[in-house]
Amino acid sequence: FKSVFFRLYDKKIASGEVTFSQLNLSKTDFIRLCTEDNFVLERETILKISSAMNLTDEEERELLEAAERQQ
Predict the structure, then answer these.
(1) Of 8, 11, 40, 53, which has the fewest Cβ atoms less than 10 A away?
(2) Residue 50 half-sphere exposure toward CB, CA atoms < 13 A
(3) What is 5-69 written as a DSSP string?
(4) Residue 25, φ and ψ in degrees, nearest 5
């Protein structure tokens, strides 16, 4: 999950499409994503972030599938 999330996140941040504050992701969750290999966001949070990052349907599906595989 972590690798898929950061690939998409880095792409959106680098392009200027989104800022960290626009995600409304708690700093605690972000730190856990950075430091805990098995941490996965809750489905509702993933959907909220997908919308905030303007992910395509395919990107959102990829993120959700990665979360499901890890749980």
Answers:
(1) 11
(2) 20
(3) HHHHHHHHHHHTS--HHHHT--HHHHHHHHH-TT----HHHHHHHHHHTT--HHHHHHHHHHHHH
(4) -95, 130
- Predicted pLDDT at 62: 97
Cβ atoms 18, 52 nearer than 8 A: yes
d(CA 54, CA 32): 23
Amino acid sitting at position 43: R
**Which pLDDT value is given to residue 61?**
97
Q: What is the pTM of this model?
A: 0.91
Asked if 32 and 39 touch (Cβ cutoff 8 Å), the reply is: yes
